[in-house]
Amino acid sequence: MAAPMKTRERIIQASLELFNLQGERNVTTNHIAAHLAISPGNLYYYFRNKQAIIAELFNQYEQQVDTFLRPPEGRAMTVEDKTYYLEALLAAMWHYRFLHRDLEHLLETDASLAAQYQQFSQRSMGRATAIYQGFVDAGILIMGERQIEALTLNSWIIMTSWVRFLCTSRGDPGDLSEEMLRRGIYQVLALEGGYIAPQAREAVDALQQRLFVPLTTVT
């Protein structure tokens, strides 16, 4: 039998669930405490305010992305790597979707988090650039340095704004589904359409078919 979660872990998990379902701005520390049937004072023993909880959740998200967003060592890239990156990005986006939905507000209200996010953003785009270069070196994509730079930036814009797009087009953060986020991953893959090497076309087309979600699902 698994050991029961400690109070601090329960607070983190409950906060993530409520933020994802209702939107961070609609959830207070009192809501979180009531959801867990603990006193606000008990919550404040572990986290001095809601910003501290958000900072912990962002740390977890950052660590998850840092773990997978890196080129493999000692071998050439494959189309299967593309599948791995896209599925891992989808999982991270879905698990921490409130961060993407409320990102601008979160960064405006916490200067420390804003500075941390800026470093995370720069590091992630640097790693994404290296990954795209790896696909070029492996003969999967055909593009030059400026095209890699543009593709990296466009992919980052889609990834960081897709949840907000869904919420503005649908209105209810609790109405989001993993399938709707999958369409965002497909959009990233679609950006590469004009750069796929002939020998990789069949495998990439199969991946696009696997990830495709009709636009009517998200609008």
TrEMBL record:
A GO MF label: DNA binding
Domain HTH tetR-type: start-end pairs: 5-65
What's one Pfam family here?
TetR
UniProt keywords, alphabetically? DNA-binding
The keyword Cytoplasm appears for this protein: no
Highest taxon, organism lineage: Bacteria
DNA-binding listed as a keyword: yes
Which PROSITE patterns would you find in this protein's record? HTH_TETR_2
Look up the DNA-binding region in the UniProt entry and give its residue ranges.
Answer: 28-47
Instruction: Report the protein name in the record.
Output: TetR family transcriptional regulator
User: Lineage of the source organism?
Assistant: Bacteria, Pseudomonadati, Pseudomonadota, Gammaproteobacteria, Pseudomonadales
